[in-house]
Design a protein that fits this description.
The protein has helices spanning about 1-20, 25-30, 45-65, 80-85, 105, 115-120, 145-150, 165-180, 190-200, 210-220, 240-245, 265-280, 285-290, 300-320, and strands at about 35-40, 65-70, 95-100, 120-130, 130-135, 160, 185, 205-210, 225, 255-260, 295. The protein has about 325 residues and is α/β, with parallel strands linked by helices. Helix 3 (about 45-65) crosses helix 12 and helix 8 (about 165-180) crosses helix 14 (about 300-320). The relative contact order is 0.17.
């Protein structure tokens, strides 16, 4: 019996070769045949976790195989990211992360991997605008008035961030460079203490995600002046984009995406891309992300590769402009 089974296996492999179909190709065609791991390099409960768990649930349903979120935080997302960089490129270990991955090369002098060289961008899943808010006691009622105020008081207007080198810090630096203003950066250890001091008037302005700011805007404790997206957002349709409000061509989104190991075969990358796009177009995904103040994106892997490289270049320029020294 054992000899017969070995002979049958050899015959099957030989037949596949004659037909021009490799065993690997057959496995890729049937992917996934077992549970899949989606690594999140952040702690549970954050915005990346929100996206990762939505994708995991949606893909599990579409594939009929469980997609498990594996949180691996630490070292500025390097620990979890390296898990995927070193993983077998079989499609069973993937990375869900944020636009912070495009900032890593400029903020760390020495890493054991290069995001552009060692990861394959598979699909851009969602993005979120940041919102520019100010303390209601500030005289500026619009972006143009804020710019004029900052120019009249160089180095005196204070702006909070959730930490040096954070995405919202770099959006602030992009704003300063675009408007030719000198605004004093005040870093905090996270967004929550920054918002507390902003409401208290210790700092005067802040860029951050709408999910953390809208409740305070609606209550009148903060005043919103604009959003950083290219188009207005449906959860605050009367709020202009910064480009509309006086900062030409300004756009800075926080985005969330899927990556695989660099050697991930094109067929597997395509399967991940296809199923993620299917989920993002579903009514349940559209509604879920709308309620989370995000917009589904999708698109091809080739489009995302180009976008990823452009974002590395853009955020690196912001790091240099901010005078941030690599760690």
């Amino acid at each position: 019996m054992a000899q017969f089974m070995r002979a049958s296996a050899v015959t099957c492999i030989a037949l596949c070769s004659l037909l021009g179909v490799s065993v690997d190709a057959m496995a890729q065609r049937d992917f996934p045949t077992r549970p899949v791991r989606m690594v999140n390099p952040y702690t549970p409960g954050g915005s990346v976790d929100l996206v990762a768990r939505a994708l995991a649930a949606g893909l599990s349903e579409l594939w009929g195989q469980q997609v498990i979120v594996d949180n691996r935080p630490g070292a500025g997302t390097q620990i979890g990211t390296e898990v995927v960089v070193r993983a077998e490129p079989d499609g069973y270990t993937m990375l869900c992360t944020s636009s912070a991955i495009a900032i890593l090369p400029a903020t760390y002098r020495s890493m054991r991997f290069d995001p552009a060289r060692d990861l394959l961008p598979v699909v851009l899943a969602t993005h979120s605008a940041s919102m520019l808010v100010v303390h209601p006691g500030l005289s500026a009622k619009s972006v143009k008035e804020l710019i004029a105020l900052a120019r009249s008081q160089p180095g005196q207007l204070t702006a909070a961030s959730s930490g040096v080198g954070s995405t919202v810090h770099l959006i602030l630096e992009m704003f300063k460079a675009s408007t030719k203003t000198d605004i004093l950066h005040v870093p905090y250890k996270g967004g929550a203490p920054a918002i507390t001091d902003l409401i208290g008037g210790q700092v005067k302005l802040f860029f951050n995600t709408p999910g953390t700011l809208l409740q305070h805007v609606k209550s009148g404790r903060l005043r919103a002046l604009g959003v950083t997206s290219a188009q207005r957002v449906d959860y605050a349709p009367d709020l202009p984009t910064l480009a509309e409000a006086g900062v030409p061509d300004f756009e800075a989104n926080i985005w969330y995406a899927m990556y695989g190991p660099k050697a991930l075969p094109p067929a597997l990358a395509q399967r991940w891309n296809d199923v993620t796009n299917r989920y993002l177009k579903s009514p349940q995904a559209q509604e879920y992300f709308r309620q989370s103040y995000m917009a589904p994106v999708g698109g091809t892997s080739a489009e995302f590769v180009k976008y990823h490289l452009s974002e590395i270049k853009r955020w690196s320029a912001a790091v240099v402009a901010a005078g941030i020294k690599p760690q």
